[in-house]
Every structure is written in C-alpha cells, then in structure tokens.
Amino acid sequence: MNVAAAVGRVLASLGVDTAFGVVGSGNFHVTNALIEHGVRFVAARHEGGAATMADAYARTGGRVGVLSVHQGPGLTNAMTGITEAAKSRTPLIVLAAEVTEPRSNFFVDQAALATAVGAVPLRITSAETAAAQTAQAFHLARDGRRTVLLNLPLEVQSRPVPTPPAPASFTSPPSVPVSLASAPPGHVSLASVPGFPGPSEPEAREVARLAELLGAARRPVFVAGRGARAARRELEELAERIGALLATSAVAKGLFRGSPWDLDVSGGFASPLTAELVRGADVIVGWGCALNMWTMRQGTLIGPEAKVVQVDLDADALGAHRPIHLGVVGDVALTARSVTTLLAGGGDDLRPAPAVPDSGLGILDVRDGAGREEPAVPDNGLGEPDVPDGSDSGARGVPGGGGYRSVALARRIARENRWRDVLYDDEGGEGRIDPRTLTIELDDLLPAERVVSVDSGNFMGYPSMFLDVPDERGFCFTQAFQSIGLGLATAIGAALAQPDRLAVAALGDGGALMGVAELETVVRLGLAMVIVVYDDEGYGAEVHHFGPDGHSLDTVTFPPVDIAAIARGFGCEAVTVRDRADLAAVAGWLDGPRHRPLLIHAKVSGARGAWWLEEAFRGH
C-alpha cells in the first residue's frame, strides 16, 4: 500500500462516505483509493462546483466533507468554494495533489493560498506518518470546525507505507504531531493549530452571570446561529423557563420551526414583526451567532437599553462585530443546559409558569377565558411591544417575574410573522411575474419536506423569506463570501445529503449562467431537483445600486437568454413562467414521476431593488 492508498483508507475508516471533485493525474490514485474503500465519489464539471457541493453536503448532512483536486489549477479553480467553506467554518478536507518543484508549470504556493482564505494548510510529509497525519487533518476539520487543505506531494504519494493502517486505528486524534504546510520544517502539535477547540464546558462564573442576567430579563430574545444548530432542545428549555422569544441568523433558518415563539430570521430578512420584537428586547443572546451587521441590521435591531450577550466556542468571536455586555466561551448546548439547571434552583421568582392550554390539536389555545380572541400586543409608544410586568398564566414559559411571552403575542406571531402575510402591491405584468407572487405560489406547490439552497444576488431574499423550510437542515445558505454562482452546486450537495427531501435551487440569472455546467451533474446523478431562476436580465444588485445615480448600466445588463432552452439541452424539463397560470406546469411535474430535474425560468419584474441589499452596500 502506498501513501495515496493509505490516505483513502484512513478517511474511509473515519466515516467519510462521500467525496466530490474533478480528477486529474495528481489526485487520480487518492480518489480511486477512496472509492476502493467504499466512499461514493461525485464527479463535478468544475472544481469550484465540487468544492461547494462538498461544503453543502457537510452543512446539511452533519458530516465531514471531502474534496479531491489536481495540483495547481485544480486547486485554484476551487478557491472560491473553499473560501466560502472556510469563512463558514465548514468541516471540510481538501485533498490536493502538490508539486514542490518551483519550475513546474503546476507549481503554486498552495499553503499560502489556503492561509489567505482562512483554511488550515497541512501536508503529508512521509510514508511513516501519512496515516496519522491524515487522521489529524480529519479531527481538526471535524472537532475544530475548520476547512483543512491536506497537501499530497506527488513524490510522497507513491511511497510504500511500512505498516498499512488498521481500519479503526484513528477514531481519536493520534499522538503523532501534524505538520503545518506553511510552517518551517519540523512538526507542530495539533492543539497549536489556529481554531482547534479548547474545553467546551463554560466557566461556572460566566454561567452564573448569564443566569443572573436572564433571570432579571423582561423581554429576552435568543438569536441562534450556525453554532447552535444542534442545540434546539437545550435552547427551547431555557427559553421556556425565562419567557424568551426565538430567532435565528440566516444560516440557521428553520431551527425553531414549529415553536409558537419562532420569529424566524433576524436581520435583513426579518419580517416587520420580528424586527419590532427583536428591537424591543431588553436582553439579546447570540448563541453560536456573530450578531454581525446582517443579523442585527447594522445594529439597528438592538434597542438603546438592551444588554447583548454572546455564547461561542471561539473566544475570538466574542465582541468581534459589536460591543457586548457578556461573553461566554463554551458549547451552546452545554451552556444553555447549565444556565437552565442554575435557574431551576434559583427560587420562586424563577419558576416556570403553567403551560398554555392545548386545544387538543397540538396547537396553542390563544383565546381568553370567554372564548374571544386576544388582541394584538399594544405599542408602548416607544416602538416596543407593551409587555406587562405581571406574569401571564396562560402563556407557556412566562415566569412569575415577567418574560416576553404572552397569549396575545403568541396569537400575533401566528398571524403576522410570515412574510407572505405582509400585504404588498403586486408589480407583475407585461410578461413578468412579481418575485414575491412567484415564491408564494411555489411555497404552496412544493412539498413541505424540502431543502432550499439560495445563491447570492438581488433576488435572494425572496426564496429566503417566502419559502418555508421544515428545520435547520432544510436551508443551505452559502453566503459567507457573497459570491454569486454557488447556488446550483450548493443544491447538489444538499440533495445528496438529504435524498428524502426535494432539493430546491434558487438562483439569479447571473449565478445560474456562471454555474450552468453543473446542470449536467444534476441530470447525470438523476436528481429530482427544482431549479428556480429569477431572471431580471442583469446583475440586479448593481442595477439598483448605481442606476438611481444616473450611471450607465450597460456593463451589468444583458439581452434576454432562453435559460429554459439551455436546461432542456442538458436534459432537464423546463418551463418559462411569466404569470401565475404558467405554474400549472410545475404542478404537473410534481404530480408526475420526476424522472428529470425541472428548471423554472421565471421572468421576474425588476422594478425595484431589494431592501436587504442596501445593508450589503453599506458594508462594502
């Protein structure tokens, strides 16, 4: 067994079940080694697509993603996808062949490329340490939540391994130190690699301070981010005890789906009611969430008297985007559980209130004692909901001393919180459909068990706000680098991770044409995917940003393209949608065998820019 074969065997033994890539001479053998040991290999049409597929597969499947690329241009082709993964702290291993001779056409400083985008560069240095170094790369990716570039020098790959690795040898990090590819010759311990986690248990003193803060809160709001995606139960238990409302960042959309206190996404995609309630909070806790300009709308969602708390595994993340009153280093689930335990022994003033009466249908009964509907929460004149000081004994999780929850507020959330319930003037006509109308109709047509992947661009808020998802695994948002063109590849990775759900790709015309090569991948894999292209015949973000100032838009607008015809050329079914009536073809496809993917070429009205992108340009 040589080094390339050992790398494949170790990764398979550690549970890697799928890898993505484009095969060239340098990664041919390691890719075949993965396949030999039972790993499914998904061949993409471009390394950039393969990188994003691996990223999405890891995010929505809860696994370590693997990408296999050729040396030099194979890696550089993948760099945008790798950058997105690194910025998102996706557990991903990039197996990259490497030439070390500077005179080679393929030579590039691959370690420097990885470092520049926030990935961790490692290298296999010898046949004797290859298996251990591969295992260390895996554990750094999984346990440290890092994107790791594992360089495989060509001259090392072919060397025989003295002792083939046993299948179960490396289930925990081996003691052999890892070699940082960007470091001087020698070995560096795994714990010294930036981003490798320390202890995840929070300090008792910090838990006590957080419990004290939450115990005194009258209007607490939790905002859960990427780091909280596995902690729903713990967060809901704590929120119920103190009467907190539940929101998420965009990447954790769906985490609290089904809760009567779910506000959905905080930030630019927030509904008017969500923005009102977050702005009215007296304590905001970001759980595994950066609380950045997106999630807090440039800070405008933080009330003048609100106290801001962050809980995160990474100490460097605390206060990185805005001042905070308290930062807690620790695992989200463990921290929430510790605070709940502490509050449970805190005396009568912290006891939970009786639960809301159940209607017998598994929903909250939000009527008053006489059977009348409760009125909406009144405004206190300061733009905040007027929440009484006394407890509301009919609301689940409203403690005796206060809390944000009330029967009336539960009713209001159920009635107003979805974007589709917000009135709007339909701007369709003259052969173009309003993107809001389009997306609401699709939300009604598509099955509830879905996974939605959204590209970047002026259109992206429509699928993000108007398409519901079943849970946090039902939404994949590859937007940390704000690159357009990743959406289709994202949907492929998400589809393979969750084959029991309908994959929905939401793309703009610009991003769709950038990533169009992967339509062949969708067809070849036989994925029953719905691909929605919001076509306004231009780069809408730039059109609406620069157009009002009188600038020429010739560089960012384009003549019409028959994207439906292109899709049919790849083997998809396709329909062009200009009004509601055209969506009958979508219903027909859903009712049929779904043997081929469906592309919906939606000619959308582009009369106005998206308000959420105003924040994007303020952040440039």
What features would you describe in this structure?
The protein has 620 residues and is of the alpha/beta class. The chain is built from 22 helices and 18 strands. The protein has helices spanning 3-13, 28-36, 47-61, 73-77, 79-87, 110-117, 130-144, 154-157, 204-215, 232-242, 272-279, 332-344, 407-416, 435-445, 461-466, 487-497, 509-514, 519-525, 540-546, 563-570, 584-591, 611-618, and strands spanning 18-21, 40-43, 65-69, 92-98, 120-123, 147-153, 220-224, 245-248, 262-265, 283-287, 307-312, 326-329, 450-454, 475-477, 502-508, 529-535, 573-577, 598-603. The chain has a six-stranded parallel beta sheet with strand order 2-1-3-4-6-5, with helices on both faces. Helix 3 (47-61) runs parallel beside helix 5 and helix 9 packs across helix 12 (332-344).
Features of the shown structure:
globular, alpha/beta, six-stranded parallel beta sheet, 18 strands, 22 helices, about 625 residues
